[in-house]
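#data-curation
PF: Archiving a pair of folding outputs for the training set. Convention for this channel: one message per protein, sequence first, structure tokens after, nothing in between. First:
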Amino acid sequence: MGSGGAAKAGDGAEQAAGPPVSGELAGGRARPKTDKSEATRALILETAMRMFQERGYEKTTMRAIAAEAGVSVGSAYYYFSAKEFLIQGFYDRMTHDHAADARARMAHTRDFAERLRIAIDSWIDTAAPYHGFSAQFFRTAADPTSSLSPFSNESHPARATAVELFRDVLQGSELAPKLDAELVDLLPDVLWLHLMVVVLYWVFDRTPDTERTREFVRRSTPLVARLINLSRYRVFRPLVRDAKGLIQDFVLPGIGKTIVK
């Protein structure tokens, strides 16, 4: 896979045949203008995900996806300017599905640790159908120059949706009013990074129903909640300030389009 949104060699002639792209989403994805165009875009995405499962990502070409979906190659490239942006489209859709599911599940609890566990369990359940070929995506996403990296500019829409979910996890809990306001502002990004650790573990987990990942979440979320809760106490304030400074100075600036406050 090429980096930064370039199409793979061999697909260039097909891409050139497509109509000009206007009204793009981040990452070269066309913004659907009608119900029909949204349905076509969804059809291409669903077809691609099924073919990735059946054939593998590398062996599935844009031409094959277009043929299977019953659309022209030019139409496929109109909605997704390169194959990797199908994965960006998948990220966007799955992130929105995850956020909706997590919010529904945690609606009746204000306990922070429980809300955090629910949100991460929801991600595992939402992603479960795609676990079998997740390692193929990880190989490309692990490349820091790839648009599929969760830290890239192209991944910003999905990442922003996820960070906003973790903002709700915290703000809807009983813990938020007790914390320093600056820490409350920073924590959603930190909790998203915690999810990235879980995702990495999940990719390599080959236990039935990713049981080890689920157990990791069950045991780690209370620990995370306790550490955040400790930040309320004066004795830990210097450590909290140091940790906050490290995150703001070295972690967040490396994430595409992240605003450091």
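PF: Second:
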Amino acid sequence: MKGSREWTIQGKESKETNDITMQLKFVYPRWGSSDIPWSAFLNKIKNTGYQGVEIDLPMDRIKKNEICSMLKDLELDFVGQHWETKEVDFTKHQEQYKRHLYNLVEATPLFVNSHTGMDFFSNAENANLIETAHEIELETGVPITHETHRSRFAFAAHVCLPYLEEYPFLKLTADLSHWCCVAESMLENQTTAVQKAIAHTYHIHARVGSAQSPQVIDPRDGNYKAELDLFTQWWGLMIKNAETNNRSHITITPEYGPPPYALYKPHTLNLQGDQWEINSFIREKILESSSTDSSK
């Protein structure tokens, strides 16, 4: 990567000091660690060098304030995550959606990552929800992103593309593993949608998928080198896009998931891959790739 740039990665500046500072801010998901008490979980994240967490928050104000207080004490950023709204009736769905978004934005997260809409809602209904989120964003000043996730409005590349064309303000949490799984391909025949998604990426969910699953068994396995290389390339392009748009940072959640995303060894309850270890590998892979790119 040429030009006047300076990388700040995990709080450490590169040797190349120039005009623009771009920070890679890694946050860790609560997903897969909900059995760990909040204090132990957050201290583990802090001590391992992550700069924040991606979490949902309870509606109960006392419990919510306790979590927010711990985040503040540990000086951890947080990304609010909304995934709960799955009501089939659209009117009820929209009301629940608004309640969850307001519950998150009032805690002043870096932004909210939303699982928005349903794949069986009409285009007009999903568009209504996108506009609802945008109104809340404008009202509160808290950015709201929309995850490219199965079962939601952005469940597939070809379905998401028209929304990106209609709504220039749309911010994505890019997890292209879902799109690969839905399309049964590595999206080689949908480059326009992929490029458009990269241009709209605000937050990265870094998980390696394949044409047959949203998560390969273990991205450290050489059998998945082609998938790992492609996803690493996509993440690099998303980071470059953020830099080109003069963003101060981009957030990245390494998101190798627990069961049922992770698979058990046959006839046991032993997982074929350790979530924490694989997420650490993904973080290091992105750091290594970004450092290499920034020196070019």
